[in-house]
Automatic annotation (TrEMBL), chain A:
InterPro entries: Amidohydro-rel, Metal-dep_hydrolase_composite, Metal_Hydrolase, Metallo-dep_Hydrolase. Pfam families: Amidohydro_1. Residues 1-28 form the signal peptide. Residues 343-402 form the Amidohydrolase-related domain. It comes from Nitrospirillum amazonense. GO terms for molecular function: hydrolase activity, acting on carbon-nitrogen (but not peptide) bonds. It comes from the Bacteria. This is Imidazolonepropionase-like amidohydrolase. Keywords: Hydrolase, Signal. Gene3D superfamilies: Metal-dependent hydrolases (3.20.20.140), Urease, subunit C, domain 1 (2.30.40.10).
TrEMBL record, chain B:
Residues 26-50, 471-509 are annotated as: Disordered. Coiled coil: none annotated. This is Imidazolonepropionase-like amidohydrolase. GO terms for molecular function: hydrolase activity, acting on carbon-nitrogen (but not peptide) bonds. PANTHER family: ALPHA-D-RIBOSE 1-METHYLPHOSPHONATE 5-TRIPHOSPHATE DIPHOSPHATASE (PTHR43135). Residues 365-466 form the Amidohydrolase domain. Residues 1-24 form the signal peptide. InterPro entries: Amidohydro_3, Metal-dep_hydrolase_composite, Metal_Hydrolase, Metallo-dep_Hydrolase. Keywords: Hydrolase, Signal. The lineage of its organism: Bacteria, Pseudomonadati, Pseudomonadota, Alphaproteobacteria, Rhodospirillales. Pfam families: Amidohydro_3.
Length: 439, 509
């Protein structure tokens, strides 16, 4: 049976048309998207018919009446909906090509000791074949999260998977929007499979790891001179935890059942952490409590099976109930980057099960931008933001709708990918020459 | 009686002994020795021809009343779309489908105006029950990874009928499933067709009269699993050797039994003075021989186009037919060959790239196959995806339209209804809305190709087995009892604030 987990080989041939790198912001043209129904996801709300002016890679103006410079290329949206580019949250996109091939996977640290300090952004490959596929699906940014286990790695050593990065889908080497965006940890079965022990043991280890970092921070001199007791974590890992214990860097905690969510919220309060909860399948059972904590949640709206004994009460209405209670909800798709485009279908399914449409669209645009700390760059259509925009053929949450235009940082992306090159190559099987001579 | 091998308490064990004693005659030589050879009786269970169905279906349709779904948009599964149509279910069967259908007197009328009706959705590739949730070790019963050929194992013997996934799938409109063993082995074992009704036993769910399938697997999985154990197959060429060797053995097995039956007939006709010895029954060979005599359908996990072509050659060499390639990520590369060979292809809308053999998987696969005239199926292989199987078909439909292949919904619905029914051998019984077929029907809240649609009512053999708005018609597995948290009604229906689309080009095409 097949499961969705993967990365890609370095010898693969790529069709030229899917390797187009989008020009950086400096070379971007001036574009006016006119006749657009604009879901700004910002303070301007919905603009029923308006124009977005893009210049130097950024949104210069947006509104019902925007003056268009003579040199601007005009893109007629034909009254269709324009949204911010979608955000794939908690994904391996760019850090893995073929999941079954370990050599193509870049989402885990190099050694068993490299834990909180592992920076996933260093291994991200903007030229990944997955990037154009995501882009065609309207995804323009991703929170790329590290995983605990990598290639040939020993288990049983580390707690933190490492630090996630925000990446854009331009395909360029300058596509890292933000390194060290959040620190990733799991306090459930995923961690237990790596560390052994129990839910309680993992939570205890999390607290002691953070307290160790606090001790280190208070005794750096003693540590450097060897006069302080040794720490369990490496210096690099302790350093990486400092912004977390200072409440500056969010801690993205994979947590699933009610009791563990409660313990995690308590821990966050006690240590004054900036938490984000990930998974949260049983969150609906304590939605008011989560909302009152102000801690955002990242949920997969399709997760409705008792996958294991920490998600027995998973249900399709989780996102809707949490949102209705006032929680800040981010919607994610599958972890594996191949399916980043699924994020909008997941938002659609959340609506099918009660979530208001505007909140579901926010949960894949503006909300993740705020929660993961890049709302100054993307996630909404506002002057000054990067011009990550998608013109949709219909309702963006409907599967039958397709992206008609995709802009990443002001540059229009060709709506092609290696997958579509393959489709076109084999569209006419009866040609005289083998398919290898086509495209 | 069947032997009970499971550990039973002492008292129960003693009771079983008594039961065995009373039915001991069944273990004695067959009652009509004349049928079996006078001098050399074949004991019960030793002749594969005696009972091809030793675990017979005990499925009975749930109670039903005559029902008319009135005013719906109907996708019949035969390629037709009927607006403002009516579907009538009587005595568990589809009685009538059409635009101006009289509602029989006394029938329960369901107002389906603004809603959609399709045949029950069929998932031709499911591991529900054999990889049940919770996904703990104890519930992992899908892969007998002890030998590359385990044609002798039957998926139904691993199915846990209480898997909550069955009910989640029902809530998504799934009425029929093919449950397959996993793909670790060249020959994984027998697949079983189930009606998606709650049952105490797997026999309660078995689709009456459905043929068995044989799960075969190409490519990476067998060579990885056995190569890593230092055994054959460790390569793709080892895979092909393994298939061919098994088919040679199966042909030999058939020859032995044919030989025996011929000699027995001669003996009964008075030729020769010695009754022939019956060959030893072999469960592995029984299944393979079932493929060779056409009674068991080959369901072949195979991703790459070149490997599919090799499997086709093997089928020619030994004289059998492959019913369907499953996953078939590269099927679009050989659509013409698959059409010519009349082999169905089951694939996904968007899965790709999780391993090398899926690296060329494309969203356009199903549309390209459909265009080439191949029997095209969208399957799940997944306990979440199966709940949203029409959405998966929608992904494939949208991708096809994006590249200019115009397929309408009435045709695309066949990917999850008529075509899987054909590929698993039950199209004469279900898969379309045609009079006389099983009353397997889904009433959708909206166009099922919309992400906002939910299955509001699901009928199996005319019985309402699930109703989204009636708690009395919402089954729960034993496992779920007592485990639901604080009662929370949750939201009802679709969330507010959806955009009203005004231009025709915005409407889903």
């Amino acid at each position: 049976m097949s499961r969705r987990h993967t990365l890609m080989g370095h010898t693969l041939m790529a069709a030229a048309s899917s390797l187009v790198l989008l020009a950086g912001a400096a070379g971007a043209e001036t574009v006016a998207i006119t006749n657009a129904r604009i879901e700004t996801m910002g303070p301007a709300g919905e603009i029923p018919s308006g124009t977005i002016l893009i210049r130097d890679g950024r949104i210069q103006a947006v509104g019902a009446s925007v003056s268009i410079p003579a040199d601007a290329r005009r893109v007629d949206a034909k009254g269709h909906i324009v949204t911010p580019g979608l955000v794939a949250s908690d994904t391996s996109l760019g850090a893995g090509e073929v999941e079954g091939e370990a050599s193509s996977n870049d989402f885990a640290g190099a050694t068993a000791e490299m834990s909180a300090s592992f920076d996933v952004s260093l291994g991200i490959n903007p030229a990944s074949m997955l990037v154009p596929v995501a882009r065609v699906g309207g995804v323009t940014r991703a929170l790329v999260t590290p995983e605990l286990s990598g290639r040939g790695e020993k288990k049983g050593e580390k707690l933190f998977a490492g630090q996630a990065a925000v990446v854009d889908m331009s395909g360029g080497t300058d596509s890292i929007t933000k390194r060290r965006a959040v620190l990733v940890v799991d306090v459930g079965i995923e961690a237990m499979e790596h560390l052994g022990g129990s839910h309680g043991g993992v939570l205890q280890l999390l607290e002691s790891s953070l307290e160790e970092a606090a001790s280190y921070a208070a005794n750096k001199g003693g540590y450097e001179h060897g006069t302080h007791r040794p720490y369990r974590q490496s210096k690099e890992d302790l350093e990486a935890l400092l912004p977390v214990i200072q409440g500056k860097m969010p801690l993205l905690v994979g947590v699933h059942r009610v009791a563990d969510i409660r313990r995690t919220l308590e821990l966050g309060k006690r240590l004054k952490l900036k938490l984000i909860l990930d998974g949260v399948e049983e969150g609906w059972m304590m939605a008011p409590e989560i909302a009152a904590s102000g801690v955002p949640v990242v949920v997969d709206p399709l997760a409705n099976l008792p996958r294991d004994f920490e998600s027995l009460n998973a249900r399709l209405e989780n996102a809707a109930i949490l949102q209705a209670a006032g929680a800040t909800v981010v919607i994610k798709g599958p972890y594996v980057g191949h399916y980043a485009r699924q994020v909008r279908y997941n938002a659609g399914n959340a609506v099918a099960h009660g979530m208001p449409w505007p909140a579901a669209l926010a949960a894949i645009t503006a909300t993740p931008a705020k929660v993961f700390g890049f709302s100054d760059r993307a996630g909404s259509i506002e002057p000054g933001r990067d011009a990550d925009l998608v013109v949709w053929s219909g309702d963006p949450l409907e599967i039958l709708s397709v992206a008609e235009h995709v802009f990443v940082r002001g540059t229009e992306a060709p709506l092609t990918s290696r997958a579509q090159d393959l489709a076109h190559r084999y569209q006419t099987p009866d040609a005289a020459l083998p398919p290898a001579y086509r495209n | 009686m069947k032997r009970h091998h499971r550990v039973v308490p002492l008292v129960a064990a003693l009771a079983l002994l008594g039961a065995c004693a009373s039915s001991a005659h069944q273990d004695s030589p067959a009652a009509s020795p004349a049928d079996k050879g006078k001098d050399k009786p074949v004991y019960a269970g030793l002749d594969p021809a005696d009972d091809k169905n030793p675990f017979p279906s005990t499925y009975h349709p749930l109670p039903s009343v005559a029902t008319a779904l009135v005013g719906a948009t109907i996708f019949t599964g035969t390629g037709a779309r009927i607006d403002g149509g009516t579907v009538v279910l009587v005595d568990g069967k589809i009685a009538a489908v059409g635009k101006d259908i009289a509602v029989p007197a006394g029938a329960k009328v369901v107002d389906a105006h603004g809603k959609y009706v399709t045949p029950g959705i069929i998932d031709a590739h499911s591991h529900l029950g054999v990889y049940a949730t919770p996904s703990v070790w104890a519930n992992s019963d899908g892969n007998e990874m002890t030998d590359p050929n385990t044609a002798q194992v039957w998926a139904e013997h691993s199915v846990w009928p209480q898997d909550p996934g069955f009910i989640r799938a029902l809530e998504g409109g799934i009425t029929t499933l093919e449950i397959l063993p996993g793909s670790a082995n060249l020959f994984g074992g027998r697949a079983v067709i189930l009606k998606n009704v709650p049952g105490r036993t797997v026999q309660d769910k078995k689709f009456p009269g459905a043929p068995y399938g044989l799960k075969m697997a190409c490519g990476e999985n067998p060579k990885r699993v056995y190569g890593s154990k230092g055994r054959t197959p460790a390569t793709r060429m080892g895979n092909v050797f393994g298939y061919r060797k098994a088919w040679i053995d199966a042909q030999e097995y058939r020859r032995k039994w044919d030989d025996y039956r011929r000699k027995l007939a001669d003996y009964k006709a008075g030729k020769g003075d010695k009754a022939p010895d019956a060959p030893k029954r072999d469960l592995q060979m029984d299944t393979l021989a079932g493929v060779l005599d056409g009674s068991i359908l080959v369901q072949n996990h195979c991703y790459r186009a070149d490997e599919m072509a090799q499997m086709i050659d093997i089928s020619h060499e030994f004289g059998f037919h492959i019913a369907m390639f499953h996953h078939g990520s590269e099927a679009y590369k050989i659509a013409d060959i698959l059409k010519k060979e009349d082999i169905c292809v089951a694939t996904w809308g968007e899965w790709w790239g999780f391993k090398m053999e899926a690296y060329d998987g494309i969203e356009e696969n199903a549309a390209l196959l459909q265009k080439a005239g191949v029997c095209t199926v969208i399957h799940s292989d997944d306990d979440i995806l199966t709940q949203h199987l029409v959405q998966e078909a929608t992904i494939a439909l949208a991708a096809g339209r994006r590249m200019g292949i115009q397929i309408d919904e009435a045709e695309a619905i066949k990917w999850v209804t008529a075509n899987p029914a054909k590929s698993i051998g039950v199209l004469d019984k279900t898969g379309t809305l045609e009079p006389g077929k099983m009353g397997d029907v889904v009433l959708w809240s909206a166009d099922p190709f919309s992400v906002y649609a939910t299955a509001d009512q699901v009928f199996i053999d005319g019985a309402l087995v699930y109703d989204r708005h009636d708690p009395a018609a919402q089954p729960k597995s034993d496992f779920e009892l007592g485990q639901t948290g604080p009662a929370h009604p949750g939201p009802q229906g679709v969330g507010p604030g959806r955009p009203v689309l005004t231009t025709s080009t915005e409407q889903p095409q």
